[in-house]
Every structure is written in structure tokens, then in C-alpha cells.
Amino acid sequence: MTIAQWCVLAACLMPILTVGMAKASLARIPRKQGGYDNFNPRTWEAALEGWRGRAHAAQLNGYEALPLFIAGVLFAQIGGADQARIDLLAMAFIAARVLYTWAYLANRATLRSLIWMTGLGLSIALLALG
Q1: How many structural domains comprise the chain?
Q2: Per-residue buried b or exposed e for 100-122, using 16+ beta carbons within 10 Å of the residue's own CB
Q3: What is the average pLDDT value for the chain, to the nearest integer?
Q4: pLDDT reported for residue 105
Q5: pLDDT band for position 33 (50/70/90)?
Q6: What DSSP assignment string belongs to the chain?
Q7: Residue 3 vs residues 70, 71, 81, 111, 127: alpha-carbon distances, Å
Q8: How far apart are CA 105 and CA 122, in angstroms?
Q9: Which residues touch 119 (CB under 8 Å, ≥6 apart)?
Q10: For 45, what's the count of Cα atoms within 13 Å in the CB-facing half-sphere?
Q11: Of these four, 9, 32, 101, 125, which has the most CB atoms within 10 Å of its CB?
Q12: CATH number for 30
């Protein structure tokens, strides 16, 4: 597997880990007292507030960012672009997503939006390589 392909895997796992932080922070609290509800996880996640609610929102945005990033990596590789350049852009995308998640959890809205635009630009750059 190429570095870019490993980055695709990382991008697919990041949303799960993001909301996992919110779930783990309430692991010791019983479900009936607001702890994680595995019987109704989507309802539970939608009701989260504060940094946990932002973790859920970052998870959703992570899933929304996946199709364009994956398409970018695939198009660039199928199109025969320089693999080192593809790898560099893919790693930059992962770095942007990590920073984006941090900014979301820290409630830094403007910074988060700027980082989001950077990630979008990296995905478009990958598509353009193809």
C-alpha cells in the first residue's frame, strides 16, 4: 500500500475515533444517567452538548469529507500522477483533518473553517493531479 492509501484508511477511521472520545468520556456513567446509549446511539449522539456535541459534529463532517478525498487519491493514482506528490497531499489532508478536529473540539470556529477550506483544497488538488 502507498502512503496515500494508508491516509485513506486513516481518514476513514478518524470520524470513529473523534466521536469515540465523547463516548469514552462518559463510559463510567450509566446509560440511564446520560452515559453512552448503545440501544439508541444516534439519538444519544444528537443530544450531546459542549465539546462532546462538537465531537459528534466533527465526526459527521469527517464522513462528509471522505468521498472527495478518496476520489482525489484514486483519480491521481489511476491518472499516473507522481506518487510522492500524491502521498504529500494525502498526508497534508490528514494533518488538516487532525487540526480541524482539534479546532472543532476547542470551539475555534473561524480557525476551523479555514482549516476545512485547506482540506477541501487538498482534495481538489488531488483530483486535479488525475
Answers
A1: 1
A2: bbebbbeeeeeebeebbebbeeb
A3: 95
A4: 96
A5: confident
A6: --HHHHHHHHHHHHHHHHHHHHHHHTTTS-GGGTS--TTSHHHHHHT--HHHHHHHHHHHHHHHHHHHHHHHHHHHHHTT--HHHHHHHHHHHHHHHHHHHHHHHTT-HHHHHHHHHHHHHHHHHHHHH-
A7: 13, 15, 14, 27, 17
A8: 22
A9: 65, 69, 93, 96, 97, 100
A10: 21
A11: 101
A12: 1.20.120.550
| Residue 7: domain span | 3-129
Whether residue 26 has pLDDT greater than 90: no
- Residue 28's pLDDT is 87
Instruction: Please name which of 9, 17, 20 lies closest in space to residue 93, comparing C-alpha atoms.
Output: 9
User: Exposed, middle or buried, 60 (CB in 10 Å: 0-12/13-18/19+)?
Assistant: middle
**What does the pLDDT read at residue 37?**
85
